[in-house]
Amino acid sequence: MENTTRAEQAVEYKRKCNCAQAVLLAFAPELGKSKEELMAVSSGFGSGMGGMEGTCGAFCGAVMALGMLNKSDKPSKMIAKDMMQEFKEMSGATICGDLKGIKTGKMLCSCDDCVRHGVEVLEKRLAEL
């Protein structure tokens, strides 16, 4: 993929923080916020909001970054809707518990791959703005 470098950087960040934080940190230079601020604002989104029962943290991080980076006339929620569909196609779901197979015992996508997918869907949309 064309975004391998940033996606792999996000995976490296994931070793020391949650999935939402990892995706946001990968976009830190463009976001104009300190790493501490990005870590704080995304701290509650790891492990899926609601303890794996909510939306994947990596996807949440991508949408948070989108909101800060979208300077177009197209509402971020509309772009996020497209991102969500693509993320779901890539990962198999958007809910953390479903991705991890909590109820089924079948993992659909690893955290590392979810982080990669979050970065990739965001990079694609940013390139289109």
Overview of the molecule:
This protein is mainly α and 129 residues long. It has one domain (4-128). It has 8 helices and no strands. It has helices spanning 4-14, 19-26, 28-31, 35-41, 57-69, 76-91, 96-100, 111-128. α2 runs parallel beside α8. It is globular and about 40 Å long.
* Overall geometry: globular
Question: What structural class do the secondary elements suggest?
Answer: mainly alpha
Tally of distinct domains: 1
Question: Largest sheet, described in full?
Answer: none
Poorly predicted segments: none
* First-last Cα distance: 19 Å
Percent range of helical residues? 55-70%
Protein name: C_GCAxxG_C_C family redox protein
InterPro entries: CGCAxxGCC_motif
Organism: Selenomonas ruminantium subsp. lactilytica (strain NBRC 103574 / TAM6421)
Pfam family, one: C_GCAxxG_C_C
Keywords:
129 residues, globular, CGCAxxGCC_motif, mainly alpha, 8 helices
Summarize it.
With 129 residues, the protein is mainly alpha-helical. 64% of the residues lie in helices and 0% in strands. The protein has eight helices and no strands.
Give me the secondary-structure topology:
Layout: H1 4-14, H2 19-26, H3 28-31, H4 35-41, H5 57-69, H6 76-91, H7 96-100, H8 111-128
Helix pairs in contact: 1-2, 1-8, 2-5, 2-8, 5-6, 5-8, 6-8
